[in-house]
Amino acid sequence: MLGKLDWSAIPIDQPIPLVAGAVVLVAILGVLTWVVVKGHLPYLWGEWITSVDHKRIGVMYILLASVMLLRGGSDAIMMRIQQAVAYQSQGYLPPEHYNQIFSAHGTIMIFFVAMPFVIGLMNLVVPLQLGVRDVAFPTLNSVGFWLTATGALLVNVSLVVGEFARTGWLAFPPLSELAYSPGVGVDYYAWSLQISGVGTLVAGINLVTTVLKLRTRGMNYLRMPMFCWTTLASNLLIVAAFPILTATLAMLLLDRYLGFHFFTNEAGGNVMMFMNLIWAWGHPEVYILVLPAFGIFSEVVSTFSGKALFGYRSMVLATMAICVISFMVWLHHFFTMGAGPDVNAIFGIASMIIAIPTGVKIYNWLFTMYGGRIRFATPMLWSVGFMVTFIIGGLTGVLVAVPPADFMLHNSMFLVAHFHNVIIGGVLFGAFAGFEYWFPKAFGFRLDERWGKAAFWFTFLGFYVTFMPLYIAGMLGMTRRMQHYDVASWRPWMIVAAVGVAVLSIGVICQIVQLVVSIRNREALRDRTGDPWDGRSLEWATSSPPPVFNFAFNPDVRGEDAYWEMKARARQQSLEHEVPEYQDIEMPRNSPTGFVCAFFATIMGFALIWHIWWMVILGGIGAFATFVVFAWRDHDEYVIPAEQVAAIDRVNIEERRSLVSMAGAV
Amino acid sequence: MSDQTHIPAGHDLAPGEEEQHGVGERILGYVVGLVLALLLTATSFFIAGTDLVWQPSIPVALIVLAIAQMGVHLVFFLHITTGPDNTNNVLALAFGLLVVFLVVGGTVWIMAHLNANMPPMDQIMRMQ
Questions:
Q1: How far away is chain A from the Cα of B56, in angstroms, using its nearest Cα?
Q2: What are the structural domain ranges in chain B?
């Protein structure tokens, strides 16, 4: 009746996950009770859960990423403490638990923190920057978000029901095959990634189509803000690469469920095919993450330097070059597999070549700052911190791209330090910069600068204290994923790294405090003009938060830095006073399709993991029925009457007039 | 999606969005495509079994016919043209082909070199 599921699935003997799970469960129940008792449920359902507004979906993506960041961060803290104490002893985590923790940490940080964070920012900002009212496929967008949330939910369910994979974040066979991992851990891993992978693919298709097909009047490709370009490149990579991940995991699942032999040791299977395919997805994946971050830095550096981006066209070219070359380097993840010098040399050289467009970008940001009037607000601090940190990570990356050096450093702590250096220093700093920069646009008030700066400095220093020792430990020969060790010379570095993770945690706490303080002081921090940073692109041309239709009129773009140019024109012509003629606006209706679809996908995923076949069929029918109901809908749009549009828009225009006239007086 | 949010950006069409010809004209296009596709398929089957041509040329001929078949599908059924309104579609196709070529070609090459740096097990076995 319930497949493999019985009471032994609950880890009664392991207090840590059980207590953690209980705390989370109590927290969730508490929030739910509060929502129901206070009567917020209709609001939550009508305005957020069923929303197809790209801004709301973007905010929900970022919320999911932030919550999962805390989960993944807790895993990181536990690992650092374990390695600090497990010198010539077993530490406090038993091996099978430790293995689950590092697997969950990697999986969560990449798939459920970094991915939703950048996709959320792209969702929130790109339609505004393009000057349009919505994304190309609003309901599909909601489906994509909720399927990602399903994946995150399944990973967290594994904490209290069953176990998570003990195989590392990419579940390499033969360890992940049934013979060596008979439990449900790998199934939790694979099904949550399959379901959230569909969500990511859907988001990618939606954003590619939005950038290619929905741009306002005059918004040529070469007038698009840099963030739109990097969004395009990143989502092209999603569309091209995620099917490889889905196919590879599908083959692994066939091995595990139906006795196939794609990656097994026996019957002609080849584990190296898994390495090859997973990295053919895995390397483009890191550029999927970091390209949007590059776009955010471009926006932030140019805004806070008060200058147009230096070398816009070279930046576009570098972005698209990275987009293509990222598909030519994947073998550098397994130089040591036994390939000959010709294969290794070609992929090594390609890996070094991809550093060139990245270097072009660094110089462009530096030259944008050069001669500019730089304001060191929090987003700019994250950007400068990124440049310093990312250069170090990039240089160690070029180092491990040299095959002979890689033979020494493969699977060592040096490698761990390298990829944390580029992912934290690149993606996470970018996500935080974007969070600080666009928060006023999303919510209508700025974030507290003092706590923001404190968060930056603690995170920045904490990063160095945590990961520089790991480089050294790697040089001393320490391999990754060790539950305990006996080498005395590694010990001090592990202790320093544990101190570093404490400093990093203070950074995260500062972020939370910043959010709380800013919400309490929101009246003082209110952004009435919609343009708190003296911005340059179209998202600042509308109010904060933008109305549901984004723009009362589709903006007319006449050059790069569209909004900067509009402001300049308005000052020269001492403001146009003609009363514009407002028109009715049609917007897509909210739809519970995404939520209902993900609800059934969750049931189906859980049932697949535990081999509960009747429930699999039930979930599948439910998800398909949701799709059919949506496909046969009659009313998919509603009309906002012209008077309402006018009323909303006039308020914003008044605020903006006073801003422009004040600027003119100065 | 409402019409107002559909702002035409430049001249650029999605597949199936091209200007409406008469029904007859469109049916004619599909029929021509179907006939060509069937013809190419029939030729492939014929070539594979025949001894009228030089035998080693048969695989090459099949590859050529397969590529022609793809071309027919792209032009008559997926409406990919070289017109300026089709730039996006052609570029998307080119990007897709490039990625498929890189991943498939790279995989074949990598998997063929899998053991180049390994000890020659077959020789060692023979020596024992």
A1: 30
A2: 18-78
